[in-house]
């Protein structure tokens, strides 16, 4: 998982995608922001869905998607059409993460409306229903507080049926869980220790059951920051660079970090906590050796 708003160039995106395919990393997801989040607003930012369409045309096996696209950035018809377009370009390798939106600074900068949290969740809920409706068979209409669609049969439909995989994430609050249980194929949580990961999974399972869905169909994932080294010297060089470029240092309980054996131990903890896949947030996005190391960590599991 790459923070695309932190100055990732098109050449770097292509290199990342090629490295993922070379080293059998199954999916490359990116954030969807219009401004850098760490205060370095001089860093260039490429649009998420435009980038995904470009990568879809230059890769062959890699799954691609957002984690996550804010409902505040795009009309749901635009988002649904962009995702279907990428799905066709890729031959059916797209996943869609969708969220309510949260960063007020980039909304003000680019002129996106930024309502209070309850209203943003109302918009988010309508977008989920519309996106799923447009991906479905036949004609779809919608009348809500924020959107109206009049008898549209949106074609082409996604290659992946019955619809594109939809990811909803968060800290497992009641409304997020309810929306995920109604619309999502996967629930993703972020920056959590194995204990918290297990607790949030239990909430997701309960939400699936309350919605009348088989909890064995729940795909549960977690996004954690990732920084590893093959030896102590390499690890410390990467730690120094992380501190300079991002002002961060790893937190033991919410990162996959350290030497390979330590990272494997953390991944095993997460697997035992019920995690189906881990999105590794690689902040040093041009350090392709860390992509190669992901393959080795997976093999060690």
Instruction: Write the CATH homologous superfamily.
Output: Luciferase-like domain
- The total of beta strands comes to 11
Distance between the termini: 20 Å
Beta-strand percent range: 15-25%
- Kindly state the percentage of residues in helix: 40-55%
User: Tell me, what's the shape?
Assistant: globular
Total count of domains:
1
CATH-defined architecture? Alpha-Beta Barrel
Radius of gyration: 19 Å
Low-pLDDT stretches are none
| Alpha-beta content class | alpha/beta
Quick take:
By secondary structure, the protein is an alpha/beta fold.
SSE arrangement:
Layout: H1 10-22, E1 27-30, H2 48-58, E2 63-66, E3 69-70, H3 76-90, E4 94-99, H4 104-110, H5 117-135, E5 140-143, E6 148-152, E7 166-169, H6 174-183, E8 186-190, H7 194-210, E9 219-228, H8 232-246, E10 255-258, H9 260-272, E11 277-281, H10 288-300
Parallel strand pairs: 1-2, 2-4, 3-4, 4-7, 7-8, 8-9, 9-10, 9-11
Antiparallel strand pairs: 5-6
Keywords:
301 residues; alpha/beta; TIM Barrel; two-stranded antiparallel ribbon; 10 helices; 44% helix; globular
Report on the structure:
This protein has 301 residues and is α/β, with parallel strands linked by helices. The protein has one domain: Alpha-Beta Barrel (TIM Barrel). 44% of the residues lie in helices and 18% in strands. The chain contains ten helices and eleven strands. It has helices spanning 10-22, 48-58, 76-90, 104-110, 117-135, 174-183, 194-210, 232-246, 260-272, 288-300, and strands spanning 27-30, 63-66, 69-70, 94-99, 140-143, 148-152, 166-169, 186-190, 219-228, 255-258, 277-281. Strands 1, 2, 3, 4, 7, 8, 9, 10 and 11 form a nine-stranded parallel sheet that branches. Helix 6 (174-183) links the parallel strand 7 and strand 8.
